[in-house]
Amino acid sequence: MHWFVILFFLCAACGTQPAPMMFGGARHETIVDGRTFVVYRKGNRVEVIRDGPAGPGEHDKIRATMIEIVPWLTGCQVVRRSVEGDSGALRARVTCPRGRR
Q1: pLDDT > 90: what percent of the chain?
Q2: Quick check: 96 and 76 in contact, CB under 8 A?
Q3: SS3 letters across the chain
Q4: Is the Cα dihedral 26, 70, 29, 86 positive or negative?
Q5: Rounded distance, CA 88 to CA 62, Å?
Q6: pLDDT digits over 6-25, tens only?
């Protein structure tokens, strides 16, 4: 049990971290409706991470918000059919205009 508590606090101290495939990607952060979202973009891929809790019935709205903030923060459009994940962490491909690649 002690190792679990130590691991919990170590993870909490790390903050929002991307998946290993997104290491080195550009990091963007915003607050929408009182929730913090972090977007990592690397090449034609993005990962959006929600920081903080979500209550029952909020997940669909949060997921929609996660998709909507990608163009605001990166200038790239989400390829809708590539979206994977949930309201905690969402991954997708993006298409970017020239100069944003």
Answers
A1: 67
A2: yes
A3: CHHHHHHHHHHHHHCCCCCHHHCCCEEEEEEECCEEEEEEEECCEEEEEEECCCCCCCHHHHHHHHHHHHHHHHCCEECHHHCEECCCEEEEEEECCCCCC
A4: negative
A5: 9
A6: 544 444 445 678 888 888 89
pLDDT in tens, 58-85: 999 999 999 999 999 999 999 999 999 9
Model pTM score:
0.80
Query: What's the alpha-carbon Rg for the chain, to the nearest Å?
Result: 15
* Domain locations in the chain as residue ranges: 22-95
